[in-house]
Amino acid sequence: MSLNDPQWGNRGNDDGGGRRPNQGPPDLEQLWRDLNRRLSSIFDKKGGGGDRGGDRPPVQFNSRFLGGGIGLLLALVVVVWLASGFYIVDASQVGLVLQFGRYKESTDSGLRWRLPYPIQAHELVNVSGVRTLEIGYRGSEKNKVLKEALMLTDDENIINIQFAVQYILKDPVEYIFNNRHPDDAVMQVAETAIRQIVGKNKMDFVLYEGREQIAVDASKLMQDILDRYKTGILISKVTMQNAQPPEQVQAAFDDAVKASQDRERQKNEGQAYANDVIPKARGTAARLIEEAEGYKKRVIATSEGDASRFKQIYTEYAKAPEVTRSRMYLETMQQVYSNTSKVLVDTKGQGNLLYLPLDKLLQAAGAVAAAPAAGSPEVPVAARPAAAISNEVPPQVVEKNEARSRETLRQRDREAR
């Protein structure tokens, strides 16, 4: 085969693009004829044809070849188009089939097929994954978004609240087709619910004891609003990340908190003191009352006994006044004299005689003398008993008293004679 072969055309000095040097653009018809010749020579060789016995009309071969190629190409395009309808749905997803843009059906996990585009299309929606929205901050609590975080309480105080909302999809059809931007809707609903709940409570309740209650109420209110809008979203959890006063008043708020804590501490201390003193006072009062009741009963009983004794004595006195009077006098004097260490001796014309019980004074002196010997401190004179002081009387005085006593006894003996 040479370049001058008729099936290749007279190439001459062309540059391989169907044109010769220093000439204009190639002839399209000539290029088409050259292409037909090449294809016909290739198919003739594959079909076992030898010498063609002359050139065949190029136009007849071109029509047959082009018809078969177009049919094969169309069949290939149809197969590819039909194959584009296959899609795979994961276990955590749900497939939504759309026919001309309208929802038609939902498909479960696995290999699925639908009519190819533009008749049908599909969307894959993750229904098991937990989605999270951050309100008042982004990523970290330090990255605050004050426009979302600052809220007003019922007592007209401004607080900074940061919280996160976690939700899942309970109805993917409503999630896709009923809202244009469902995530933005969830954020707006969450912010609205929190502001409504915070606006109905005091600042101390929001910051301290009511944080869990606010999260529960916000979750319930958010779910009611989302169900009303048919978003297909289920709120799983609302978490309060942080709640504090604004930074501009943080120092003043800390002082107020410290003062409140000091107040509570003092109240607790006072209550503890009251819990200690009041029971003791009540016990003392009960003891005094019982003692008073006992004294009252004792006095009453004693009075009743004295009255009964007086009545009995009066009865005996009415029977024998002189005898009873003498007996009562003697009993009384015996009782009085038995309680004193002095002895009175009645002498005619001499008056009362003071008698010192020397035996008892000596016994008391011995007891006082034994105390310093045992190592006890010296007792002052003012604190000593009268018996101990009497023991320290000088011997001259004692002898004088004894002589006086003997003289008195002699006089009594003379008078008796």
Architecture overview:
The protein has helices spanning 28-46, 58-83, 146-149, 172-177, 182-198, 203-207, 211-228, 250-319, 321-337, 358-373, 386-391, 395-416; strands spanning 86-89, 93-99, 102-107, 110-113, 120-126, 131-135, 137-138, 140-144, 150-152, 158-169, 233-244, 343-347, 351-355. It has 417 residues and is of the alpha+beta class. The chain folds into five domains: 1-83, no CATH class; 86-126, no CATH class; 131-245, Band 7 domain (Tetrahydropterin Synthase, Chain A, 2-Layer Sandwich); 256-339; 341-416, no CATH class. Strands 6, 9, 10 and 11 form a four-stranded antiparallel β-sheet that branches. A three-stranded antiparallel β-sheet has the order 3-2-5. Strands 1-4 form a two-stranded antiparallel sheet. Strand 12 (343-347) and strand 13 form a beta hairpin. The protein is rod-shaped, with a radius of gyration of 65 Å.
Overall, the morphology is rod-shaped
Strand content: 15-25%
Low-confidence sequence ranges: 1-23, 46-54, 374-393
The major pleated sheet works out as:
4 strands, antiparallel
Structural class: alpha+beta
Q: Would you tell me which CATH topology of the largest domain applies?
A: Tetrahydropterin Synthase, Chain A
Helical region count? 12
Let me know the average pLDDT.
Answer: 75
The level of helicity is 40-55%
- The beta-strand count equals 13
Number of domains: 5
Reading the helices and strands in chain order gives HHEEEEEEEEHEEHHHHEHHEEHHH
